[in-house]
Amino acid sequence: MAEFKTDIEIARAANKKPIAEIGASLGIPADALLPYGHDKAKVSGDFIKSVRDREDGKLVLVTAINPTPAGEGKTTTTVGLGDGLNRIGKKTAICIREASLGPCFGVKGGAAGGGYAQVVPMEDMNLHFTGDFHAITAAHNLLAAMIDNHIYWGNELEIDIRRVVWRRVVDMNDRALREIVLSLGGAANGFPREGGFDITVASEVMAILCLSTDINDLEERLGRIIVAYRRDKSPVYCRDLNAQGAMTVLLKDAIEPNLVQTLENNPAFVHGGPFANIAHGCNSIMATTTALKLADYVVTEAGFGADLGAEKFFDIKCRKAGLKPDVAVIVATVRALKMNGGVAREDLGTENVEAVAKGCANLGRHIENVRQFGVPSVVAINHFHSDTDAELEAIMDYARSMGSEAIVCRHWADGSAGIEDLAHRVVELAEAGASQFAPLYGDDVALFEKIETIAKRIYRAEEVIADKAIRDQLRAWEAAGYGDLPICMAKTQYSFTTDPLVRGAPTGHTVPIREVRISAGAGFIVVITGAIMTMPGLPRAPSAEVIRFNDEGLIEGLF
Amino acid sequence: MAEFKTDIEIARAANKKPIAEIGASLGIPADALLPYGHDKAKVSGDFIKSVRDREDGKLVLVTAINPTPAGEGKTTTTVGLGDGLNRIGKKTAICIREASLGPCFGVKGGAAGGGYAQVVPMEDMNLHFTGDFHAITAAHNLLAAMIDNHIYWGNELEIDIRRVVWRRVVDMNDRALREIVLSLGGAANGFPREGGFDITVASEVMAILCLSTDINDLEERLGRIIVAYRRDKSPVYCRDLNAQGAMTVLLKDAIEPNLVQTLENNPAFVHGGPFANIAHGCNSIMATTTALKLADYVVTEAGFGADLGAEKFFDIKCRKAGLKPDVAVIVATVRALKMNGGVAREDLGTENVEAVAKGCANLGRHIENVRQFGVPSVVAINHFHSDTDAELEAIMDYARSMGSEAIVCRHWADGSAGIEDLAHRVVELAEAGASQFAPLYGDDVALFEKIETIAKRIYRAEEVIADKAIRDQLRAWEAAGYGDLPICMAKTQYSFTTDPLVRGAPTGHTVPIREVRISAGAGFIVVITGAIMTMPGLPRAPSAEVIRFNDEGLIEGLF
Fold first, then answer.
1. Selected residues 55-114 of chain B with any CB under 8 Å from a CB in chain A
2. Residue B213 DSSP label
3. Is the pTM of this model over 0.90?
4. What ipTM was assigned to the predicted interfaces of this complex?
5. Which helix (H) or strand (E) holds A236?
6. CATH number of the domain enclosing B469
7. Do residues B11 and B141 both lie within one domain?
8. How far apart are CA B422 and CA A183, in angstroms?
9. Is A507 annotated as catalytic?
């Protein structure tokens, strides 16, 4: 290998094409692109409508084994596979999520992909990008202000101020805002009550934006948000406050998908970024469905491992959007499988074929799970320079034993040239037309049974336990007409169980439900099985302390 | 007059040119423009540096009599005069402030100018525009999060949590956030303390952005912000938390001036928008100084009436930026002068020459005041259809009696054709080179004496009264090296006195100082003389309730 370059050095050296050229490669006329600088653009809603009747391209989901601190490189593989498919002559677009601003100031991070499989402009994507998250923040907080304003002016809707469930949001890691008392200061400022802030990606507005099929659907969904309850427990909706129109106006640009490019100048839609625990963790339906109209292949990803991310992609996003995924790619790394096999992080550099083989049980479980949705899959081994041939062989052998196939991918080091094999296999699977996609459960199954179905069939749990209050709540929602909603599980991403330390492929465990919430606008029931943090804090030495422009005018410390 | 059209109808019918053409008219190359859509762009910092050594054009300030509910049309006249100067062959750019998002959802409002003297795209300018205010909000709140995070992790700087003066901001009218208790919820969330939110335009970051000469100056000023005090009352600065670098990175695009156009396709810089009470109320120095390098004439405006807006423009912005204004235009209307003459709002439609003549005392005071700064002025009568000839004559007579001139301007109805006379007069005054601009007081005058100078010479007060604590504070700042800062008066805009109901040209009153604050980063001492609201509330029936997209896809209710 030649001189080692960091992600940001590679990104800065990118030979970007004007965004209009990228759009043209997908047949998007220049006047249907709203430019944000020379390398970012939004695709106009009118153009999106105009291609609605075209046939869809093939849809490829990139998912992964349970994440470990060793990293598995799901986004990197999504980007790499997109470039690889383009390389072998398939017109391909990728669809990924936008980054949240807040966490960038906590620990060094950011980046969309890595090595020679990245999306650019990296710096803008990790800062304000096209302003979508700011618009979502504003729309969310407008509704919050209107709720307290309604209470202040007489509370005609009889909102119980102890039961306002609509918090505020900020796109910042700010633990001091997790729990506050607001409306203090006397009669001029309202009625004191408890409240708090979540980070913007946890906003139901984010989930709604990502699940809306167009701007009318967006407005209707916003109207359906439950913001509070009365003393008699009856819900108060966003539409009762007439806030959905103004919120939609605030989101008029945010709902249009963003187009950028990979390092190899292939089109990338980067749009939306809901939490993958209390929300469904996928980029917007608008981006995915638009890309499918414009490209032969669309490669997209889902949050966390396949037990959470792929399940929600299939059961929530695909169900709502009517998407039929053709192939799933399950990303694994030697290092992450080693950790699943019990190796400590500091020992990852040492060859350990046995641990890899042991850790493969985690991979196997995900292969089986994806199969349950009727979607053919292939394993992508995201190659690290420390991997040994014997370790790689162990994974490939295991995949074969599962009736699958694992392919070594070197896109991080070599870009599209390193991932041609995977690209060919994906095309083979897609063009065979073998996918028989169906969600895991039907709309009409009882809510608790839906939870049990996910817990038993995907997590391989023995049972789901829940207090009477929770079961009553689920039945109450069924009675109120919400019985057809899918489930959005909020569970640790590190394990099939609710204990983050249990790696591998456990069985026979119990899934205790701590709480259930309804996202009536987004259209799912959130089932919380552990401590869910919707507002992160900053670490002792936040990266914000070292982020700055250096003397060459380059941003330091952000990556 | 033909069929009456609303501002928004006129704005929507605008025949906009591509923003690159507008830039080209000022000699800005296309690659120095960062487009935001097809009708908005930011001017690159590198280009701005490259024109730094050019000669400046002429600088025209548009200010006004004390505002009344009748409206005086300062922005409309700024836009109209810009178009008028272009019409008579002077290459002219206008510089105005950006609109705040929050108030748009309270009462119908927005718009930049009115009638046939507007800046477009109106809708974007009243929504997210190019995201500057969102970036300011994020930078401000990052610093806030870093303060509480520092306290959480051990408080090495020994911040007194009772004396954190850096609040949070949101670009929303949200009275419930005025006073809060934060960091509740136990040990994981920090140390409970009192805090609150202001609206973004009240952020010192906004004032700093508008007073910075370049990105390095911005970073230094951010570092100088005082965020809290220790128990021994010594200040803790933003730079003690190392936040200024990351804040600057967040503001990298926001500091670049925005270019848009008037209805007549003339260039308009719209950049920054600090409060005109606790801050100086002018668009950014970067926009004004850049425009001066590119145009023969630059027309800009200042907030409120000349007693506040022009005084701060001269004593803060011009002092800091080394600007030498050539001409001031004082906007008045028959209706507003009638109100100053004692007429109630409901009687404004009836001719009342006597009231107009009486109200002219307010105008006269502003003419005298502008003269004190050595700047020649002319009065623009912004014509309303209900004005009678006799009323207009009364103003013109009065102006002559003051050694000035008042010119009737019909730009609202007729665009640039209606304001040619004023344009010619402005050119005459500017080219005569009569301006002998000097700020009202020197840097080295004692702080209390600076306040007295403004109160006595501009407001014509008899005396300034202040508690010992306030005088001690001013002396303490002098001892700490802040004695050379200018004063930023926060006073009601409706009167020369501190009583909003006293119209006309009062004398002999007292100016009581309620509080003094330091904006060490922006570089001024804020002197508060009444109740200052830094977080507005929404009205009983906020316009947000009726804002929506109608069936034609047009935004309703925002204007």
1. 101, 105
2. S
3. yes
4. 0.96
5. strand A235-237
6. 3.10.410.10
7. no
8. 50
9. no
